[in-house]
Amino acid sequence: MRRMLSGVALLAVLASAACGDSGDSAPAAGPSGSAAGGELIVMAAASLTESFDKIKTDFEEQNPGLEVTISYGGSSGLAQQITSGAPADVFAAASPATMKTVVDAGDAQGDPVVFVKNQLVIATAKGNPEGVRTLADLKNPELKVALCAEQVPCGSAAQKAIEAAGVDVEPVTLEQDVKAALSKVKLGEVDAALVYRTDAKAASADVDGVEFPESAGAINDYPIVALKNAPNPSAAASFVAFVRSEPALKILTDAGFQQP
């Protein structure tokens, strides 16, 4: 028996799976994304939220009878849930390192494929009242800065960029995913945060995104894979293929992701 699972997010996934009895799933027709049925459970990096919500809608429209449930969160936490036996069909991570956790545990069906890339910006309050222009500005002790924790992809990328800039940034908080770091800026609890360009763009009504050159050396690859013990394996394969299709890539690039 696999290890017991924990965490609110995981409980939500388990409850969703119980309601959607995957044993009744109809087989999918294939990578075209047509004729899939039943329930599909996707675990995806928090930074994919806005894009995957749109992709889910389009995929469900092409597959009447299929219900897609997406659990968003920090990639490392999601990977831990999967390796602990969470009943998921697809995993989309914000870094190869977190995906490797799932692959090394033997939980991937085939090789993961990188479908997009993402780059960091400095998120500030709308209008950039503190005048943040460079990464070096964040070493100002009068600025409150939020970073992602280093064990999650946005934190690892932030640390890489900070080291490349040769600056010493002392964050007032370390968050478990990029949405939490961005929320600190939106709520006015910090003056700046390192977040993905896509997250700053999605929240452009509330924040400004300040580009900085060192982020070019800290771009994260986003891999996706169907899971070995997927309750709905045919729909999982179809969803992975759909995410890599031109319509889905347009959604992703419109959101600010870069093509691999």
UniProtKB/TrEMBL annotation:
* SUPFAM superfamilies cross-referenced by the UniProt entry: Periplasmic binding protein-like II
Superkingdom to which the source organism belongs: Bacteria
Stretch forming the signal peptide = 1-20
Q: Where are the transmembrane segments?
A: none
Alphabetically ordered keywords of this record: Metal-binding, Molybdenum, Signal
What does the record list as GO biological process? molybdate ion transport
Q: Molecular function terms in GO for this entry?
A: metal ion binding; molybdate ion binding
The UniProt entry, under Pfam families, shows: SBP_bac_11
Q: Where does the chain bind molybdate?
A: 47, 75, 178, 196
Q: Per its UniProt record, what PANTHER family does this chain match?
A: MOLYBDATE-BINDING PERIPLASMIC PROTEIN, SULFATE-BINDING PROTEIN
Question: What family is reported?
Answer: Belongs to the bacterial solute-binding protein ModA family.
Designated name of the protein: Molybdate transport system substrate-binding protein
Supply the source organism for this entry.
Paractinoplanes abujensis
